[in-house]
Specification:
Blueprint (H helix, E strand, L loop, with lengths): L16 H20 L6 H22 L4 H28 L12 H9 L3 H8 L5 H33 L2 H27 L1
């Protein structure tokens, strides 16, 4: 008798909108820190590592999800925390240099948010970013980070719902083993009754 598989294939993180967004955040952060921060500034490493952590932990959590729901939840939360740290770095950059952080009522904000959500953005951002000034790049990054954090919050909610519905991998393994034993016992009883 063959048992039902309890480990479901997962790990399609490259197709996720949040992963694609964090890839862009990483690229923009790498460009921004290389262009506008002095090489001796420790903030470069901190910002690039926070951007990388946001991206990498989504990938690692997705891969780990097949065998550990707890690890998936933990890494998704680490990704969100890393992006929140990066968000503060961009906000600090603007504040200490007396540059404007665009609020929701800023005349360019609605266009920026719409552009970041559009289909063409991922194909054109590499050409656009070098044409922007410091304030524009920071506000672009802040907008993308806020979008990614929102998506990660939604992802965490869904992961928690799935955990409540299905349980962790250990629970799934136990259920599969019990179902297999019951099936084997039923099959054995059936064999005995056939022989009588």
């Amino acid at each position: 008798m063959t048992a039902e598989p309890f480990l479901q294939p997962r790990g399609g993180y490259r197709k996720l909108r949040v992963y694609k967004t964090t890839e862009i955040i990483y690229d923009i952060t790498f460009y921004f820190t290389s262009r506008y921060l002095k090489m001796s500034d420790r903030t470069i490493d901190q910002m690039v590592q926070a951007a990388r952590s946001g991206k990498q932990n989504i990938a690692e959590g997705s891969k780990a999800s097949m065998t550990s729901t707890e690890t998936e939840l933990k890494l998704t939360n680490v990704a969100k925390a890393s992006l929140e740290e990066l968000l503060i770095d961009y906000e600090d950059y603007l504040r200490v240099r007396n540059m404007e952080q665009w609020g929701m009522d800023h005349p360019r904000m609605e266009r920026l948010r719409s552009f970041c959500s559009g289909e063409s953005f991922s194909a054109t951002y590499r050409d656009i970013v070098p044409r922007l000034n410091q304030e524009e790049i920071c506000n672009l990054a802040i907008t993308l980070i806020n979008q990614a954090i929102y998506l990660l919050k939604r992802m965490l909610e869904r992961q928690q719902e799935m955990f409540v519905e299905r349980g962790g991998v250990r629970e799934q393994m136990s259920r599969a083993r019990i179902a297999y034993r019951r099936g084997s016992a039923g099959a054995a009883r059936s064999d005995k009754s056939d022989k009588v």
